[in-house]
Amino acid sequence: MFNxxxxxxxxxxxNTFGEVEYPLMEDFxxxxxxxxxxxxxxxxxxxxxxxxxxxxxxxxESWDEEEHPKVKxxxxxxxxxxxxxxxxxxxxxEPLLHDLYPLTHRLKEEGxxxxxxTSGSSKLSGNLDWITLSPKRFKEPLDEIFPHVDxxxxxxLKKKDLEWAEENAAKCPEGTKLLLQPEWDTPxxxxxxxxxxxxxxxxxxxxQTHKFLGVR
Length: 216
Ligand code: SF4
Prior knowledge:
By secondary structure, the protein is of the alpha/beta class. Helices cover 22% and strands 25% of the residues. The protein contains five helices and eleven strands. The chain is globular and about 50 Å long. 41% of the residues are buried.
């Protein structure tokens, strides 16, 4: 749980929040395929813009925010509400490139729980019920995010990533859900993870189940 209004650094006049615009790659109602909330229906809001540059990224088309339209908060929130979703998941791209307070404040006013999936490489903002940190070595997370993390999800390609997983886990609060996720196009990562989790049962496995289900 995190609420950046408590830090009083980015609260605009609440009446204007609906007019704030975000570069938006896509938004859609689907099933959360990864992590602790796997299998739950959720409205995904994928903001555009990312400066992390993971070479294996499967949403590279999200990187350049200029290639995507700017959409008003009111419009995004209306679509989320209309979908019937109880959870909104803000993802990217790297959503923390944008001040998420106006969008998340309005989503919560409409009764949605708000989750975020982030690399943690930019300043934390928003009114958030669940923070999934998926740190990337290409641009490391800021220290300020660690006390607020609910779930740590590490994408694993090779052995070195398991060391990176432990380095990050050591900075997370007690009780953080710890998950290792194989990189979809690197099948050997699965064997690596299975053996690691058997020896280190504080970790669990996250699979991209939406890809098995054939939903996006
Ligand atoms: Fe892609 Fe996410 Fe890495 Fe950005 S942080 S490059 S969106 S995988």
